[in-house]
Amino acid sequence: MTVTIRQLGKHFFGEVSGVDLRKPLTPQEAQDIEAGMDKYAVLLFRGQDVTDEQQMAFALNFGERENPRGGSVVKPEDSRLAQTGLNDVSNLGKDGKPLPRDSRINLFNLGNCLWHSDSSFRPIPAKFSLLSARVVNPKGGNTEFADMRAAYDALDDETKAEIEDMICEHSLMYSRGSLGFLDYTDEEKELFKPVLQRLVRTHPVHGRKSLYLSSHAGAIRGMTMPEARLLLRDLNEHATQGEFVYVHKWTVHDLVMWDNRQTMHRVRRYDQSQPRDMRRATVAGTAPTVAQQAAE
Predict the structure, then answer these.
(1) 4-283 under CATH 3.60.130.10, yes or no
(2) Is the pLDDT of residue 296 over 50?
(3) Distance CA 214, CA 144 (A)
């Protein structure tokens, strides 16, 4: 079958048909899907009842698997999915039951309800994320996506010039701290040290510029903290207007794939007493956005 993509959002977000992700992709299918990612930034594949192994095999068509170390407070031995290479973004413990609402892991994971770009807290941030819905919560839990290219394009020329060369500091401690989560071990503090990212990114294929925002961004080099956070707040408010946002309501066996270089996303609140099983494969980025040095 031929891969076809139908645009669902005003600026971005496409729905793919003509491919079965349980089977290996042909080179042409992989090429068509990657070209679709460049154009639409987010792709939806419906009715994909994949195993963990099939999900990971699909992801590896587009790059190497990202090393999950340093992206969570969950120790590998406590992870349900440690052997699969997938990231667990469910609300489930190792016993398969919903985590207690006050569990440390659950409180940390609530940071996913903030607008963010996956792994912007890493020196080399993620390329693609691929999220598979295995059990869908009956109420809430939609994922919202924001097109950061369209948001950049809509800025006035003065703002574009002002932010062009700005460098931000990103850390999980910024995003979780904004929710009052301050409980870190010394090892975690070391893992979550701030890294540097450009505020404006240029896509390596089509050359469009994007705002590179995230709840992980908490400082801008050369600015006072209050000035930086006000600017970042203003830019986030601009970038997440309804004009630039698409809301995805999950159904079981949806697989959604997004480009972290061109989008932000967040999950909406849902009933934590009900199971929600979502599994993410993450494709590693290939280059930093800025030459790294130790963030002070």
Answers:
(1) yes
(2) no
(3) 14
